[in-house]
Amino acid sequence: MTEAWREVAERVRNWGRWGDADQLGTLNLITPARLAAAAACARQGRAISLGVPFDAYGPQGSSGFRRNPIHLMAVDGGDANFAELLGGWGGHSEAQVAGMYANGPMRFNDDYIMMPLQAATQWDALSHVYYDGLLYNGVPAAAVTSFGATKLGIEQVAERGGVVGRGVLLDVARHRNVARLDAGSVITPQELQAVADAQGVDFAGGDIVLVRTGWWTRFLETRKQSEWFAGSPGLSWRCAEWLHENEIAAVAVDNPAVEVLVPEDGVLMPLHMLTLRDMGMPLGEIWDLEALGQDCAADGIHEFLLCAPALRIPGAVGTPISPVAIK
Length: 327
Fold this sequence. Notes:
The chain is of the alpha/beta class. It contains twelve helices and 15 strands. 41% of the residues are buried.
């Protein structure tokens, strides 16, 4: 069965489609005309958050190469003498700053965070996954070094304004009339099309597809990270051709990895290879689609303006995001 996904790779590969130097992949499908049309989806003036919390209680475990974010306070209410740490500031001496701080009313708090860039709601950059020694558009895998990605880094996405366009929700869980899909459940391309047809959705080039499985609610109920990851339902790798034929610009799901995590046909994460490496399609993982699903079910409108900018981190292979759907 290994050869089956490789045959699909030949059919969906976009290398050279937008030039040999292209680093944006399917985001090229979001043309100025398509972006302008997407803006018209914001009719009601309602914004819906699609991100999960960046905190210590998220889906990442306490071991492995990813951890949950660690939030630390650098300055808080107990640091009344912080002026001495400011040193010379604003062209003033340390003593002058200390005097102004001591005699003035202004006080402040400050903080920082330590986290993997793909700890919670995220986009995968095109430099995230490769096989046979090559990344998207034939870029050598060696282009990613210990200093970061010299090609296909997430800054390429950030510099174009992020992932902004017409979003379309395909609510698979609601279509199946369940709160969430069963563990290990596979979503086929035929089912994606059936959901779109049932919702009355037509696709235009450059759409960003969000797929609701309801799986995020499973984590909220149990807080069992390893169980949530291992049992995740998701897209079949066979959805790659459906995404390609419908000229989808990006896809995001409310699960850990977009695709089902139980290996299909014994191949580990083939959809990642087909989308990121062959198609040049960003993947969004660990999105919270519950409020959006309820809203779309209530008004019957499954399209919206999606704003999901990437952080401008040169050389990064992924980015944390706080996406918003505007209806």
